[in-house]
Specification:
Heat Shock Protein 90; five-stranded antiparallel beta sheet; 11 helices; 16% strand
Length: 484
């Protein structure tokens, strides 16, 4: 069973507001009912005292003349069985003489004429003691705790002499039916008020909790998904909740910045590792390259002039030049001077990837609108495309297709390499261009990193789209200055 403290605010706030409304309504109803009860008691007491005084004044003459029948008629006329307010009717009316003997009563069989009222015992016995207290001419209200009646005693006074008393006995529960009706009406009114107020209170409370729920949902995304947390729709009011939302956005921004710094530090550490590795192998690569390039150029100047050999050696020369520039890219050096990129370079790239594509039965298609050279370093662009094409051929399904699109327009070269291989998971996409982050068993994880470094050198942009069951597309956009 869920504890109240563990309930969501979407329920806790409305329930608390409803409890407050209900408690307030009950408290107000109880106060009103209590006040009405007190007023009824006071009205009953005032009516009883007034009736007792009237009867006392009226009964003086019959008592002086010992006219019992006249006295009986008077006390009977004071009791109306069809009264509108039965609770104001006395349950018993007694008239006593100065010796506390019954002169006449509304119940002669219970209180015979001449009987001693104290002989009834109980509360009636205490009435005698109450008569002797205070002044003989004082009106008294007696409420015995162990009796179902309370009494109003009014003296019969003639020429300053107390002839006896008029005693009115009222049932303590006589006005309970009226009180119950009052409680019922008050409860009905309270219920109607609650039926109107509670839906309004519930809706208002739910709306009050919406900003807090949005803030809580955003907090749950920290630190796993800071970008979603930062873009969450939080309250923008000027109250405390709005201020809390603003503080949360600032906090998430700081955490995001911290994550970016940590990521940059991680990349820097990996770059340093690559730099140390590159510095160790650069000397071993560049010296043999220089010797091979010198040998090729010597043969080209003094060779036999065989066209096939010249074409093959020219391709080898371009390949060796590309290796030299690859080392430069690996060292993240400044962009070297190079010739302009030409449409024929794409044909060379197809020759270089042809063997790998044939081995995997992958078809490489080209859709290029390049008709003239571009003022961009050919070696670096060849390195970009060669890495992307080889990766695409490796990632493509057996017998699949790799497509290269190249468009130069409005001072920008747009390249796209598409393959129909397996989807790249989202968690891998975040680290795809970091060194040594290869997602395949084969590969050193430097190809895409080199591509990224070259694109950055050329002030370009690089993006990846990979859809499950669809295709993976590497898109590159590199600006260039068009010749006049």
């Amino acid at each position: 069973m869920i504890a109240l403290a563990d309930l969501s605010l979407r329920w806790k706030i409305p329930l608390r507001v409803m409890a407050a409304v209900l408690g307030t309504a009950l408290a107000v109803t109880a106060a009103l009912v209590t006040r009405e009860y007190d007023e009824m008691s006071q009205n009953l007491e005032a009516h009883a005292k007034s009736l007792a005084r009237v009867l006392a004044n009226t009964l003086v003459a019959p008592v002086l003349h010992d006219d019992i029948w006249r006295a009986y008629e008077i006390i009977q006329s004071a009791r109306d069985p069809a009264a509108i307010a039965p609770e104001l009717q006395a349950d018993v009316v007694l008239v006593t003489d100065a010796e506390y003997r019954v002169f006449v009563s509304s119940r002669p069989r219970v209180f015979p004429i001449g009987s001693n009222l104290a002989g009834q015992g109980g509360a009636y016995g205490r009435l005698r003691a109450a008569m002797l207290e205070g002044r003989p001419t004082e009106q008294k209200v007696i409420d015995p705790a162990d009796s179902a009646h309370y009494f109003v005693m009014s003296p019969l006074v003639a020429d300053g002499v107390a002839l006896g008393h008029v005693v009115l006995g009222y049932s303590k529960i006589s006005f309970l039916p009226r009180f119950a009706g009052l409680v019922g009406r008050a409860a009905l009114v309270t219920l109607l008020v609650l039926l109107v107020i509670m839906p309004i209170a519930w809706i208002s409370a739910r709306r009050t909790g919406v900003p807090l729920l949005a803030l809580a949902d955003a907090m749950r995304r920290v630190p796993g998904d800071l970008e979603v947390a930062r873009l969450a729709e939080l309250p923008s009011s000027g109250d405390e909740i709005g201020q809390l939302g603003d503080a949360f956005v600032r906090m998430v921004g700081e955490l995001k910045h911290k994550q970016e710094l940590e990521s940059q530090m991680l990349v820097s550490e990996r770059l340093a590792a690559v730099g140390r590795l590159s510095a160790g192998i650069a000397h071993e690569i560049n010296n043999p390259l220089g010797g091979m390039l010198t040998a090729i150029r010597t043969w080209q100047r003094h060779g036999s002039g065989d066209p096939m050999a010249s074409q093959t050696l020219s391709l080898l020369e371009r390949g060796l030049d590309q290796i030299r520039h690859t080392v430069a890219a690996l060292l993240v050096e400044t962009r070297p001077e190079d010739r302009a990129f030409q449409p024929a370079d794409i044909d060379d790239l197809l020759i270089l990837v042809e063997a790998e594509a044939r081995a995997r039965s992958v078809r490489v298609a080209v859709d290029s609108s390049l008709a003239a050279s571009l003022p961009l370093p050919a070696t670096l662009l060849r390195q970009i495309l060669l890495n992307l094409l080889l990766n695409a051929v490796t990632a493509a399904a057996q017998g699949g297709t790799v497509q290269l699109n190249a468009v130069a327009k409005d001072g920008k070269l747009r390249l796209a390499v598409r393959n129909d291989g397996e989807h790249i998971p989202d968690e891998q996409l975040a680290y795809l261009f970091e060194p040594f982050a290869s997602g395949r068993e084969k590969g050193h994880g430097l190809g895409l990193w080199i591509v990224y470094q070259i694109v950055q050198q050329l002030n370009g942009g690089l993006s990846v789209e990979s859809e499950p069951g669809g295709c993976t597309i590497f898109s590159i956009e590199i600006p260039y200055v068009e010749s006049a």
